[in-house]
Specification:
Shape of chain A: globular
Number of helices of chain B: 10
Largest sheet of chain A: 6 strands, mixed
Number of strands of chain B: 0
Helix content of chain B: over 70%
CATH architecture of chain B: Orthogonal Bundle
Radius of gyration of chain B: 26 Å
Largest interface: A-B, 23 and 21 residues
Oligomer: heterodimer
Strand content of chain B: under 5%
Distance between the termini of chain B: 48 Å
Order of helices and strands of chain B: HHHHHHHHHH
Order of helices and strands of chain A: EEEHEEHHHEHEHEEH
Number of helices of chain A: 7
CATH superfamily of chain B: MetI-like
Chain lengths: 255, 274
């Protein structure tokens, strides 16, 4: 299933947030959205996931979702959004219960996703007992449980320290290599974008417009920190963003 | 500057230990302190009344109050008074808090209910419910009905206010999460909003149930033969301080038991809180 954004524009009050965004998100690829803070990249992601409605333009699903897919467009949030009163297992089972999946069938899915995110030993732990990285792995496990067609990741690693971020990036790479998934990955961190993105979409500062689309051909499992190709892309992206970021830093937020 | 880290160039070459200024503001569990306060107070009053500088017209001897309680127990009157009081308290508070939670959740979830009911609740809240007792007697009869109604009405308003505040405070990002996974409206309310509001609802119940005990005595002022409130009022009319205080002790114990059982539920239901 592909996603097409058809000239999306949006205003908050009198402020233009996004202007005429058109974009294709092909199946099986990770598309990263980068841009200075306040450029509307998270808003754009919420449009794609149907949590907000743009003033004009449409988000289109092309083709049917693959079979067995319970929730085609599935979010992974920056703040994890785990229910603190449910165990790890309970948090995953939450999203299955509404689809009538209970008992042995649910247990099989939960075991599978917890194994894939290396959380099997913590199935009965409460979120308050987990570290930030583990919480985000629970959120990823929960997202995997509904077999999404597209994962919508809203700065999933931004709340984590840099070591945990590195480890979790490795985990995401190995998850993708084992079973390629489609993802829209919003971040302000260029090294995450260079590490995980097949395509990197650079947005300008407010009103957000597509400034540039950069593709990286190196397969993501072969990318290493300090890899010359990746470093060059990183520098190119920073070149593109520096002015935008500096200008955005001198503006008032009136959203 | 002779060496790095020497303090502002003055002649204080002696290292000065950094003064500790953190700590505090973190309540810890100290069970025995509350108990000790009670014991000290009672021992003090006992000593005062025994030695005579507290006149028996002001305060009864704690030992006499205890003896009165013992008599109550032995004669079986204790349960004769306690049984109807507990029934009134349980029925009244149950009606009041269940409807209070239901209305509070409705106000929290629906803007139309909020717009319509919040002013109404604000108008009802400050009315002293005791003042309405004669009205309740006319509406619900002189016997149990009016007593249930008074207690229910008194617990209702604080429960509503606590509940809708608690629903407002549920983390909206969790609700968005539920929506993003396609959970039904009913599931979001049951699995995300209600558990999220539970801490606020329980702390509201703490207040409403204390109010229920206060109103119990008021309700028994009119046409109750048995009941802790009736017992206290009768003792007061006869200026029988031992019996009056025995009744007060029973009410206090009731308050402590209610508060402790809410504490128990909080520990059971809210163990997930950090």
């Amino acid at each position: 299933m592909d996603i097409r954004l058809d000239s999306i524009s949006h205003k908050y009050g009198d402020t233009d947030v996004l202007r005429d965004i058109s974009l294709e998100i092909p199946a099986g690829q990770i598309v990263c959205l980068v841009g200075p803070s306040g450029c509307g990249k998270s808003t754009l992601l919420r449009f794609i996931g149907g949590l907000e409605r743009p003033d004009s333009g449409r988000v289109l699903q092309l083709g049917a979702a693959p079979e067995g897919c319970l929730n085609p467009l599935t979010f992974v949030f920056q703040d994890f959004a785990l229910l603190p009163w449910r165990t790890v297992k309970g948090n995953v089972s939450l999203v299955l219960e509404d689809h009538g999946i209970r008992g042995a069938k649910a247990r099989a899915i939960i075991d599978d996703v917890l194994t894939r995110t290396k959380l099997s030993d913590f199935a009965d732990a409460l979120p308050k007992q987990l570290s930030g990285g583990m919480k985000q792995r629970v959120a990823i496990a929960r997202a995997l449980a509904v077999k999404p067609a597209v994962m919508l990741m809203d700065e999933p690693l931004s709340a984590l320290d840099s070591q945990t971020r590195e480890l979790l990036m490795d985990d995401l790479v190995s998850l993708w290599t084992r079973q390629p998934f489609t993802a829209v990955y919003v971040t302000h961190n260029l090294s995450e974008a260079v590490r995980l993105g097949h395509t990197i979409v650079v947005l300008s500062r407010r009103p957000g417009q597509i400034r540039e689309i950069v593709t990286i051909d190196t397969p993501i499992q072969d990318r290493r920190p300090g890899d010359p190709v990746c470093q060059k892309k990183h520098d190119l992206l920073w070149e593109l963003m520096r002015e935008e970021a500096r200008a955005a830093d001198g503006e008032l937020i009136d959203v | 500057m002779s060496e790095i880290g020497s303090s502002n160039g003055a002649d204080t070459d002696q290292p000065i230990e950094v003064r500790f200024r953190g700590g505090g503001f973190a309540p810890k569990s100290r069970r025995w302190v509350g108990f000790a306060v009670f014991v000290i107070l009672i021992v003090f009053v006992q000593w005062g009344t025994q030695s005579g500088w507290i006149s028996p017209l002001t305060l009864p001897k704690p030992s006499d109050v205890l003896a009165t309680l013992g008599q109550l127990w032995e004669s079986g009157l204790l349960f004769k008074h306690l049984e109807p009081s507990l029934r009134r308290l349980v029925v009244g508070a149950a009606i009041g808090s269940v409807t209070g939670i239901a209305i509070g959740v409705l106000i929290g979830l629906f803007s139309i209910a909020r717009a319509g009911l919040v002013p109404l609740v604000a108008a009802i809240f400050p009315i002293p419910k005791i003042a309405l007792l004669p009205l309740f007697v006319i509406w619900f009869g002189i016997d149990e009905g009016s007593k249930y109604a008074l207690i229910a009405f008194g617990t209702f308003t604080p429960t509503v206010v606590a509940t809708y505040g608690a629903v407002d405070n549920v983390d909206r990002s969790l609700v968005r999460m539920g929506q993003s996974f396609g959970l039904s409206w009913f599931s979001i309310v049951r699995k995300i909003v209600l558990p999220g509001a539970m801490p606020g609802i329980l702390s509201g119940l703490r207040i409403s149930l204390a109010i229920a005990i206060i109103l119990l005595v008021a309700a028994e002022m009119l046409g109750a033969e048995y009941g802790i409130g009736a017992y206290i009022l009768e003792a007061g009319a006869l200026y029988d301080l031992e019996r009056l205080f025995a009744g007060v002790v029973i009410l206090s114990l009731l308050g402590v038991i209610v508060s402790a059982s809410i504490g128990f539920f909080e520990r059971r239901l809210l163990g997930w809180r950090t």
